[in-house]
Design goal:
Length: 400
Amino acid sequence: MSPVRERPPAPGTPPVDGDRVRAARLAAHHLRSPDLPDVAGAVGHLVAVQGQEFHPALWGLARRLDPAARPGAGGAVAACDRGEVLRTHVLRPTWHLVGPDDARWLLELSAPRVHGTNGTMYRQVGTADHARQRDLVVEAVHDSPRTRRELAALLAEHDLALDGMALGYVLMAAELDRQVISGPVRGKQQTYAAFDDRVPAGYGPLGSTFDRDAALVELARRYLAGRAYATVTDVAQWSGLTLTDVRRALDLLGEGVVAVPGAGTLDGLVLWRLADDAAGERVLDPERHLVVTDPDGHRASGPVVDLLQSYDELFMSYGESRGVVVAPGVDLGDRLGSFIHGIAVDGVVVGRWRWVVGSRDVAVETQWRRDPSAAERAAFAAQAREVTTHWGLPLRDVTS
C-alpha cells in the first residue's frame, strides 16, 4: 500500500494565525464557558487525558465542568473509584485517564506501538523472564484489587521479588495486554484490578468487533472535536501513531475535516479541524472564546488567568504547534523548586505555580516569568480560591 499523502488546503481557504487557533483551542477544550457535566464526560470529550499526576489531572478536568457540577477533589476521585474513569498506560508509555467504553479499543489500537517503544526497557529489566511474576499479579487482582505495594509483597512471599523498575514494566505490559487496569483508590494508594471487571465487553463506539481503520477514524475525529486545530505531527505526537496512520485517518474522514493554512507564527504549517458547521461555529469565534463568564453568565472583565496542571491537554495535545499557548522564554519542562504547573494569562502560559496541600489547609505559590500586573495578580488570587474550594480546605497562603 502506497503512503497516504496529506491533503493540502483547498485554494482560497482563509489562513488562521496563533490568536485564532488559541481561541479555538480554549473553546474546544471547554476552558472558556465551561459546561461539561461531570468528570467522566470531560474525559470522554478528550478521549484520553494524560494522568501521571493523578490529582492535578482531576483538577484540570474539573476546570472544564459547569461550575455548579464541579465535584471537588474527593468527588473526582470517587468517579475513578466507581470505574467511571480508568487510569492505565495507553497511546504512549505514560498514564492516561480514559472512559471504560474507550479503554479496550484504545489499547487494541495503540498497545503494539507502546510495546515497541518499551522494547529496550523490557530487555533491560528482563520482562520476558518475568512470566511467573506476571501470572501471579494477574491472578491476585482477579481476586480483589491490589496496590502496587501489596503486589510487591506478594511476589516477595513467593521468592519472586522484583525491584521497582522491573515491577513497573511488568505491570505496564499487563495493562497493555488488557489484563489489569486501575481499581479503586485505597487511602492514597492506587490499586490494580482485573481488566474485564472494570471494562465492558466489546469496543465501545466501534461495536462488538475491532476494526483498525474505524479506530483510527474515531480517534482522529474525537481528537479534533476536543482540541480544534492541529497539524498531522501534533496528532501523531499525542496519539503515538505514525504520521502515515494519522494521514490515513484524515483521508478516511474525507469531507468531515478541513485543511487550513497557518499564518503568522504558524506560517508554513497545515492545520486540520472538523468541517461540521456546529463545531465550526463553536471553535472559530475568538471574540466569544477568549473571554470567560462567571456562574451567572456575566462576561468577565480584565485579564483571564487559568491555573493549569502540568500535563494539561491544552499543552500535551500538541507538539509542533504548542507555541501558541506558551510565551517566549517559558519552558513547560521547567521544574524549578517543584513548581510544575502553568499559569496562563488570556490563554498563554507566563509562569509556574504549585499547591501545597496539608491536612488542615492549602497554600498556592507562584513563579511568574514576568512581572504580573495588579489585575493579573487579582485574577490569580481568585483562581487560588478555586483551589481551596476544590480541596475543601481554607487557604493558608497565596503568593502572587
